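Exercise: predict the structure of this protein bound to zinc ion.
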Amino acid sequence: MTTMQAAVLTAFGKPLAIRDVPIPTPAAGELVVKLEACGVCHSDRHVQMGDWPQMDLPKILGHEGVGRVVAVGAGERQVKEGDRVGVPALHGGCGTCRECITGWEALCPAGTRHGYNVDGCFAEYVRVRSGWVPAVPENIDAMAAAPLLCAGVTAYGAVRKARLEAGRLAAVFGCGGLGLYGVQLAKLTGATVVAVDVDEAKLAKARAFGADYAVRADADPAAFIKKLGGADACLNFATTLAVWQPMLRSLRANGQVILVAIPRGEVALAPTDLIELGAAVRGSYEAGRQEARDLLALAGTGAIKSEIQESVPLRAVNEALERLERGTVVGRIVVDFGMT
Ligand SMILES: [Zn+2]
Ligand SMILES: [Zn+2]
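Solution:
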């Protein structure tokens, strides 16, 4: 067999073409992974529609892959055929810049990404760089593992920046897929966790995933959080600028706002809001390689739950992407390569 089924973006704003393409072969330093599953992420929709800086086409989209190594490049020593790995968005960095050698590969100016400027995981096989794909424990179901590779690692990178510990207070704004991982990961640090969302169902879910408190976003969450002493960290997973003021008003002295979601537009900032509290605002983009390895290993202990998944075959990926756009998806949609 020399060809595989893939979902290929051939023109921005158009459905992905489901077609047969050649199975990739690994060069030195590369691996080929046969996919078990790949999550369908809202980022895929942005890439498809050309919302983000446009890359060369055609490209196979998809960046939440889980599968097994079926071929290794010449001289490979770390990984062998049969190893189970995850394929995140980050395909690789230059390996030599300051960011790359200090664990900030996600910020490498020369970084490349699966499902964007390198072929991704909406295909039966994907070619990856050895050393850039974390091991996936055998005891995690592929459907549950797939969203960890994007939503999970992104939430993990954000929670680590919050420097939480027992006795601290974390407020998680936005309790969709990323936010629910954020709630669980913040809780695992020992911190007290307040979940904030406009949607009662999402708040109920956040409680089920370990949040100590759940507050509606339209019920003055800052006042509620201030009564608890104020937040050491506000983690924003909500794609709206409406959370900006409530987050600032929730902070206690030396608190910080960690920005993850990417709303359009700008926010107003009075310098005194930060100065008088000694507060900080910082962005968090994806996560580094070691963070991805650590998160997957943690998931292998059973400490992290994923939302309910809906399995679809690869040929149904366009419908899944449209449903993400319409916002009618509960939980996560995952392409199951065992379905035809
Ligand atoms: Zn993603
Ligand atoms: Zn680099």
